[in-house]
Amino acid sequence: MRRILAVGLVAGLALTACSSPSDDASTSDSGATSGASESGAATMSDTDLSYDVSGVEKVDDIAALLPAEIADRGVLNIGAAIDYAPAEFRAEDLTTAIGYDVDLGKAIGRVLGVETEVIDGEFASLLPGIGSLYDIGISSFTITDERTANYNMISYISVGSSYAVRTGNPDGIDPESVCGATIGVQTGTWQEEELAAFNDGCVDAGLEEIEILSYATQSDVTTNLVGGKVGAFYADSTVALYAVALTGEQLQIVGGVRDALPQGIVVAQDDEELTAAIQAAVQQLMDDGTWEAILANWGAEGAALDEAVVYPQS
Asked: pTM to 2 decimals?
């Protein structure tokens, strides 16, 4: 854990110092990337941080479930917003996608006998691209009724939400009463929806509204908190804890972890074959201990689910 955070700090500070990555950058299993940005940062291999999935073997019965189009192509395309450490973010070379979601995607590909390619996009644009730009989405998607009304989601991890503030909490953010606060959040996330609901409660109670500042990337959210433009940010608990380390503890968590919910891999709702293949592959990785080992590698042990459930449930 200490090694991961120490190396990740360098990558995270480099991320917050640069502009957002282009939406068309893509990273393959081998680390080759199109649309790569230039940087003075030292290049690092994804193996410096990533879990080694080379020992995960193809399971023929599960691979047989894969739609012929993907099996023939030999590549599973995965949509992700690569700026959400430690789930999915960029290594020091600012091109290679790493994180526990990325490692899970690679392991799924191994079980299915195909390569994987992570295609970067803004978080809010990912869901509309499922089934066209991307075969699946693995990008910290909280399972919600709104999402499962339009997509299939396969549960794999349970993550809560946390508020991060500057160390010492100079703006006096009270996580139990955020009316009147200025809070940053990533566009399209569950936390953005929650903040909107919290704000409705403030208005109904006749209290000062929350000033919600939404940003396309989590790195922008973190940068604006460190710079004092917002008094707090609201994000996944794993992301908030990692941001504390990435910024050299310029930030701290207030209020602990709130309301843990399952997150899911997204598949087009009319693609029953692919849904079945992904569900079976994830269950295999849960059963053989690979998924738990991946999370432990990233310091997120205890968050793994032990059953890959397909939502919406029939």
From this structure: 0.76
